[in-house]
C-alpha cells in the first residue's frame, strides 16, 4: 500500500506553496478552485506521495504538537538552513546526535515542524 497524500488545512495557501516549493523543492502537480476555496497538490514527482494544501475560509486550520515532517535535503544542510533564515523562518541549530542523521528544523507558515536531514 502506498501513502497517496497528506492534507494540511492552511491559513494562507500562497505562503504555504512558497515554503514547500522554495525550501523543500516540491512542485505543483495540480491546483484548482472548487468554489469554496483553493486546493494545491505538491510533490517531487507524479508517482511520489503528495502534500495537499487547502485554504477554505471558515474551515478549521491545522494545529498540531508532536508531529514532524522530515525531508532528506538535496543540498548541504548549512546552505539550506541559511536560505530558511534569510526567508525569515524560525530555524533550529544543526543537530548532530547519532543514531539520527544530522538535521535541523524549521517552522512552516502554519506552525508545523519541518525537519531537514542530510543524506545518509
From TrEMBL:
InterPro entries, alphabetically?
Fosfomycin_Res_Enzymes (IPR051332), Glyas_Bleomycin-R_OHBP_Dase (IPR029068), Glyas_Fos-R_dOase_dom (IPR004360), VOC_core (IPR037523)
SUPFAM superfamilies for the chain: Glyoxalase/Bleomycin resistance protein/Dihydroxybiphenyl dioxygenase (SSF54593)
Domain of life of the organism in this record?
A: Bacteria
Where in the numbering of this chain does the VOC domain appear?
2-119
* PROSITE patterns for this protein: VOC
Tell me, what is one Gene Ontology molecular-function annotation carried by this entry?
lyase activity
Q: Name one Pfam family in it.
A: Glyoxalase
Q: Which keywords appear in this protein's UniProt record, sorted alphabetically?
A: Lyase
The protein in question is named Lactoylglutathione lyase
Source organism of the structure: Longibaculum muris
Amino acid at each position: 500500500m502506498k501513502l497517496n497524500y497528506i492534507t494540511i488545512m492552511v491559513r494562507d495557501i500562497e505562503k504555504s506553496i512558497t515554503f514547500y516549493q522554495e525550501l523543500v523543492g516540491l512542485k505543483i502537480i495540480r491546483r484548482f478552485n472548487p468554489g469554496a476555496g483553493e486546493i494545491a497538490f505538491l510533490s517531487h514527482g507524479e508517482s511520489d506521495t503528495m502534500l495537499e494544501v487547502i485554504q477554505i475560509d471558515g474551515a478549521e486550520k491545522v494545529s498540531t504538537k508532536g508531529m514532524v515532517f522530515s525531508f532528506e535535503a538535496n543540498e548541504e544542510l548549512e546552505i539550506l538552513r541559511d536560505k530558511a533564515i534569510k526567508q525569515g523562518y524560525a530555524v533550529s541549530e544543526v543537530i548532530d546526535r547519532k543514531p539520527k542523521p544530522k538535521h535541523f528544523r524549521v517552522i512552516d507558515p502554519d506552525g508545523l515542524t519541518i525537519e531537514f536531514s542530510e543524506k545518509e
